[in-house]
Amino acid sequence: MNFENITIEIKQQMQIGVITINRPKKLNALNKATIEELNNAFVALDQDAEVRVIIITGAGDRAFVAGADISEFANYSEYEGSQLAAKGQELLFNLIENLSTPVIAAINGFALGGGLELAMACHFRVASDNARMGLPETSLGLIPGYGGTQRLPQLVGKGRALEMILTAGMIGTEKALMWGLINHMVALEQLLPLCEKIASKIINNSPVAVASAISAVNSGFGDQGYPKEIEIFGACFGTEDFKEGTQAFLEKRKAEFTGK
Ligand code: COA
Hints:
about 15% strand; globular
């Protein structure tokens, strides 16, 4: 691929493209550069007829992705907040969901906030047994802004999704499996081999039919909730609770919310 990647790695083995998000010291948090690099990588791999399945995972054994990079948006205005969500959804989350090439999320550790939203934008998910999943945004004075308020209820149902979003808590792989958030749970060393095994079954099938199936399945889910999510996400940036929530995270202390 003829562009430089700093925060991700791309490997092509046989007909499988493997993208690894590579910021392990920051638990692979998604910053602007990572989102742009991922956009370039997904577009390029999708256009390459040799690549029949894409797997996305995180570097190291602690995190898939621990969310959007909080240090990058802590000082954003309401407008910048809504742009952050709108751009991210367009460049990455909606792009993945509507890609012709199937994308498997190999969740190798924490998948939180934007990290779980990234996994949920993929066509399905496989997790290692050390993984922890959640949407912790309300603990920062925010709501999920990369499609989480829409895709989590699609996968686990409205009540479970609201429990996860409102408590900001994490669930382990057993519950995630029972709830349908992930399709399979394996030991960490088996994670990529299992994803590759599933990929090899997909590769046996017609690429045209596979792409058509993705398109047909996606057409059954409405998309009118996403603009509303962007609008409400942006409005959160104007609150004192957002400033307190993000500052508290960066200062490694518990947030004191006032409801303003
Ligand atoms: N954005 C920016 N930096 C992040 C991050 C994020 N979403 N998640 C983790 N990091 C950074 C930490 O600030 C820390 O950096 P430092 O070493 O320079 O201080 C490093 O990654 C390691 O994280 P740390 O919090 O020290 O690890 P931990 O084992 O104590 O806790 C988590 C792990 C995942 C529970 C914790 O990092 C966390 O809660 N992350 C944020 C999750 C979140 O709210 N995501 C949604 C964002 S919208």
